Amino acid sequence: MSDLVARQNQLFVMQTMQKNRMQILPTNLAMTIKSVLTVFKNQIEKIENKIVSLIESCPDYQAKKVILQSMKGIGKIASVSIISNLPESGYISSKQASALVGVAPMNRESGRYKGHRKIQGGKRHRL
Question: Rg (Cα) of the chain, in Å, rounded?
Answer without folding.
Answer: 20
